[in-house]
Structures are given as C-alpha cells and as structure tokens.
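Posted in: Structural Biology > Protein-Ligand Complexes

Title: Requesting predicted complex, KG4 in pocket

I'd be grateful if someone could produce the 3D structure tokens for the following input. Sequence and ligand are given below.
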Amino acid sequence: MYVLGIESSCDETGVAVVDTGVLPVPALLGQALHSQIQMHQAYGGVVPELASRDHIRRVVPLTHMVLEQARLTLEQIDVVAFTQGPGLAGALLVGSGYACALAAALNKPVLRVHHLEGHLLSPFLSADPPVFPFVALLVSGGHTQLMQVNGIGQYVLLGETIDDAAGEAFDKSAKLLGLPYPGGPELARMAQSGNPLAFDLPRPLLHSKDLNFSFAGLKTAVLTQQKKLEAAGEVSPEQRADLAAATQAAIVEVLVKKSLKALKQTGLKRLVVAGGVGANQALRSQLNEACARRHIRVHYPELSLCTDNGAMIALAAGLRIQAGVAKPEFDYSFKVHPRWALEMQ
Ligand code: KG4
Ligand code: ZN
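-- Reply #1 --
Done. Output follows.
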C-alpha cells in the first residue's frame, strides 16, 4: 500500500510517500521538504498567516517531486495521510484541506496523523531502529514530554512541561542574545566556544519527584545576566558565548536527569529522543554518556528527520496501518486540532 503523507503544522511543508508492503517498517520511497525559516526570519518568529499562505504555494509542487522520486503516479497512491494537529490552525487547515481534496478526487481514503506521533516514531526510519517498549523524550518547539511507549498507538504520558517547551527556551534565550530565528541551532553553535560554568542558571523542577519540566524561568534568568553584563560595559563575544553555553547546559541537564528518572521509574532500558531539540549535539552526547553507564540504549532519528518533515507523517500512518490500529476512511470532512494530546487520539 502506498501512503502519501502531508505535513503542514508549522513552518515546514513536508510531503513523503511510504510503502507499507515492506516489513517491519514501511519503506520511504520519496520525500520533499520546504522550510519557511528564511521567510519568517525577518520577523524574528513564525508569522502564522504567512506560514499558511506559503504552505498553499508549496504543497502541490512538493507532492509532484515526491511522486517523481518514488516513480509513482497520483492514481497509484492508496491512502492520503495528513497532520491533523497539534500546530497552527491555519497551517494545519492547508495540509488537511489539500489532503482531503486530493483523496476525494482520487477516490482514496484518508488517515489523520498526530504530529507528535510522527516525531515519536521517526527513529524507526534510522539505521538503528528501536524496539518496544521504550521511554520517549519528545522535545520540540511546542512540546516537552516524557512518554512510555508500549507499541504503536500505546502511549502513556509520564511527564511534561508546565510552561515553556525546551525548544521555546532555546529560541527565547537565543532571541535575548540577539540571535536570529530559529534560535535553537544558532544558540547551540554559539555555545560551542563558551564556558557553561561561567554563569549559574536555574534548573527548575530538577529535583522534583514528578517527571514534569519548567523552562519559563530560564529566559528571565538569561535576561537578568544579560542586563548585568550590559550594565558593566560592552558585552564581549566571549561573554555571549559563555551565556549561550550556560543556557544550553541548564536545558540539557534537566532533560538528561528527567529522562534518566523516567527510565528508572519505568524500569525500561531503552530511550528514544525525538523532535527538533533532539538534533542538539550537547544533549546527544550527554544522554549517550549517561545511558551508556547504565546499559541503556538510546535511539535518535536521522538528523534531517529531527525537525518537522513529511516522512515522519507518512511513516506514522504506515506503521498504524501495518499494526492495524488505524483504518483509513472515506470521510473527507476535515477539522484540525491545534491543541491535541497524543494519548487522546
Ligand atoms: O520539532 P520541531 O521542528 O518543530 C515543532 O514541532 O515544534 O522543533 C523545532 C524546535 C525549535 O525550537 C528549534 O530551535 C529547536 O527545535 N532546535 C534545536 C536544534 N535544532 C532545532 N534546539 C537546540 N539545538 C539544536 N541543534
Ligand atoms: Zn514538530
């Protein structure tokens, strides 16, 4: 079965096609992505209306590129899958509307996909795919969650952020440091030459008994340090790099410690890291080191599949079909879920 996947929840238009006839994981036959980063950079963040309009412009040509790569015609597509949420309402509507209209025209069924399930399952496309059950650390621009994953569609929330997401903490701190959007990768680059011990930044909820996170206070602490530096004279590139390194260290330490706590609590020996912040090298090396000492296996998506893409949506749909937990439907009415808990689907 050929499944076309459409992703349009935020600032990336992604399209991909998988073949569910290949086991144990559907084969990725083609994928194409357009990132809107450059367009939003001028505004310092995602402008929802511009995002929607750009998705409209990109989704059709990307679909044709993917079909060409996969050497398939539109008529050969068996199921059209799309991200129904969570994300920006207008952006989601573009992908949903396009997917439903395309499927209706082709007289093929549709399958609605949860964006976070796409992230969660994306490591199954890597050279070192995980096996169930595992703990998943989902760290994106909008979400920070620890889940126990027992199988496809079997997700138990262990803990989540009570305010900002880890990606948001990276982005907001980066903005304070004068870095362009999206700040996460920029801050990480700047942190490479900095000393993480130069500033003492808070690690909220680090020692709390639960598995929740809180990152909202971090940006205030970064702002306070920045103001102190500015009051003392011109801030040097070295000082900015130190502050970036200290910020990254604070976020990474909390993510690593809470992940280890979740593994201990569940007794599981496998961790999957997914979402944009999963591309962070400091997070990867510290998790690798801490997990190796405890004989815990860690799995990541390919770097290119950490941030939003269509492959993870086509894959999640394909895996759900293979596992028999979702049935594509001939129902072309579409309603998006800008806020949507993964366990609720
Ligand atoms: O998963 P994603 O592409 O989009 C959402 O679903 O939110 O994640 C985007 C987030 C942004 O906050 C971005 O700054 C962050 O992931 N990010 C990083 C890195 N690459 C992307 N944060 C830290 N270090 C990175 N290397
Ligand atoms: Zn995402």
